[in-house]
């Protein structure tokens, strides 16, 4: 056997007939300072690279709340390497393995690894930490320790709560660069999961391992010195379970939005119940949205959950605006003249109350009989004092007739006379006629409420189709 300390003192304990010694006695002789330096790498003299093979057995994965951006991992880490200085098959052929715990770890060389994305970590165990080391007769060392660690996981929450997250455990060499020590995953099953591993909010979709080399320098203080350092990474993909969010957020928010549509079945002048219902649904939804937002970090980009809540708030707010609109129309006193009873003319007449008069003036200008007529709006009478009913207007018209005296004739004509209604013999006239309809403000308000009962649910269904297509197909 090659000794790395040829100038050892003569009183260095002998390894001959090693089978007669107990394990502790033989280990104290094998790893004695006179022949073994635990500060030196196993192949320090020859200049070869030390290959450390790693494997992990995962007991437990607990992703934390999204605002913490971390997860907890319980695992068993195993490192395997060969130290020729500890080969004892020639001196103790009957001995199978040397097994020890923390006391053995203090006697031999162990690679110094650390987790670069670690928030906190600790060894697991009771009085004696769960560390196990075994040395084979050929000098192969197997180092095992159970650990629990809280590791950072920088999540992308743009599609929350329909997101998939990739979290990893990064193992890197601290003291020795890649030219001296190389980390490698075991070829067969480098990472194994416990059969009792269960996740609550997530489901484990996939996991994989990879090896890399990272750059260490004085600027970022990533490693103990400058150079390239070997690194291992174990990455697992988690899919968030949406059942909790559907039952606690999405379905209740749909019900709150549908509740805001009840105002369309109440009369437009029922201000107290419609305002109470609108404000209560708005406050209830804001409370629901804020309780969900507390579990998320304050990021600069917009999330899928925020798009949903903004859309629902828009529908609830639109229902309140619709009530204010129809209530304003309901309180008007003048009837509205419509050329046709459809959405275009009704909305125009409500937004511009003098629209009917403008339409009438256009007809008067286009009519051959009234081409030289002029109406004086200053003689318009108030609707409440007119015996013909509200909205009944008289017009002063000046007609020019070709006569010898060339004197003008002044007559007064009502709205119905000008529009072709109420004149004797108007039915048999060949002049073009336009039929005008009148609606009271109360009828218009009721008409808008009836259309809103259908329009709002259809738009909300369309919003759902677009939203769920986005979260599941994009």
How would you portray this structure in words?
The protein has 474 residues and is an alpha+beta fold. The chain has 9 helices and 16 strands. It has helices at 23-30, 102-105, 243-260, 271-293, 304-330, 343-351, 355-366, 415-418, 441-473; strands spanning 50-63, 70-82, 98-100, 113-115, 118-123, 131-135, 140-152, 164-173, 181-185, 191-193, 202-216, 227-240, 336-338, 394-399, 409-414, 437-439. Strands 1, 2, 3, 5, 6, 7, 9 and 10 form an 8-stranded mixed β-sheet that branches. A 4-stranded antiparallel β-sheet has the order 4-8-12-11, with no helix packed on it. A two-stranded antiparallel ribbon has the order 13-16. A hairpin with a 4-residue loop joins strand 6 and strand 7. Helix 3 (243-260) runs parallel beside helix 5 (304-330). The chain is rod-shaped. Residues 1-7, 370-407, 409-416 and 418-432 have low confidence and may be disordered. Belongs to the ligand-gated ion channel (TC 1.A.9) family. Residues 363-387 have a biased composition (Polar residues). Residues 25-241 form the Neurotransmitter-gated ion-channel ligand-binding domain. This is pH-sensitive chloride channel 2. Residues 250-468 form the Neurotransmitter-gated ion-channel transmembrane domain.
């Amino acid at each position: 056997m090659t000794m790395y300390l040829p100038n050892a003192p003569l009183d260095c304990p002998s390894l001959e007939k090693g089978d007669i010694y107990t394990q502790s006695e033989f280990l104290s002789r094998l790893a004695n300072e006179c022949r073994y330096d635990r500060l030196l790498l196993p192949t320090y003299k020859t200049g070869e690279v030390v290959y450390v093979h790693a494997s992990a057995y995962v007991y437990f994965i607990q992703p934390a709340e999204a605002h913490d951006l971390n997860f907890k991992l319980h695992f068993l880490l195993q490192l395997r390497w060969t130290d020729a200085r500890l080969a004892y098959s020639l001196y103790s052929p009957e001995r199978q393995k040397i097994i020890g715990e923390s006391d053995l770890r203090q006697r031999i060389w162990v690679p110094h690894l650390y987790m670069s994305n670690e928030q906190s970590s600790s060894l697991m165990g009771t009085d004696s930490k769960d560390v196990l080391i075994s040395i084979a007769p050929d000098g192969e060392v197997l180092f095992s320790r159970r650990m629990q660690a809280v590791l950072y996981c920088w999540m992308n929450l743009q599609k929350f709560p329909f997101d998939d997250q990739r979290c990893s455990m990064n193992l890197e060499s601290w003291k020795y660069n890649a030219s001296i020590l190389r980390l490698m995953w075991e070829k067969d099953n480098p990472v194994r999961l416990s059969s009792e591993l269960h996740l609550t909010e997530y489901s484990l979709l996939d996991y994989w391992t990879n090896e890399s080399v990272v750059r260490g320098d004085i600027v970022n203080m990533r490693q103990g010195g400058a150079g390239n350092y070997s690194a291992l990474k174990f990455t697992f993909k988690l899919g968030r379970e949406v059942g909790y969010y559907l039952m606690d957020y999405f379905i209740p928010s749909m019900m709150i939005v549908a509740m805001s549509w009840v105002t369309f079945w109440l009369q437009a002048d029922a201000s107290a119940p419609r305002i109470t219902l609108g404000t209560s649904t708005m406050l209830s939804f804001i409370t629901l949205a804020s309780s969900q937002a507390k579990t998320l970090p304050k990021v600069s980009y917009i999330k899928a959950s925020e798009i949903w809540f903004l859309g629902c708030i828009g529908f609830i707010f639109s229902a309140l605006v619709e009530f204010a609109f129809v209530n304003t129309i309901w309180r008007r006193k003048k009837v509205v003249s419509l050329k046709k009873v459809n959405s275009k003319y009704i909305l125009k007449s409500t937004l511009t109350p003098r629209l009917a008069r403008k339409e009438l003036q256009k007809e008067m200008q286009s009519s051959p009989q009234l081409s030289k007529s002029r109406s004086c709006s200053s003689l318009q009478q108030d609707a409440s004092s007119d015996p013909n009913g509200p909205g009944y207007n008289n017009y002063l018209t000046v007609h020019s007739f070709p006569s010898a005296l060339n004197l003008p004739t002044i007559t007064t004509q009502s709205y119905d006379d000008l529009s072709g209604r109420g004149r004797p013999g108007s039915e048999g006239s060949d002049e073009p006629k336009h039929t005008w309809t009148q609606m009271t403000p109360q009828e218009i308000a009721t008409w808008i409420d009836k259309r809103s009962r259908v329009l709002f649910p259809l738009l909300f269904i369309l919003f759902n189709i677009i939203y769920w297509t986005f979260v599941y197909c994009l």
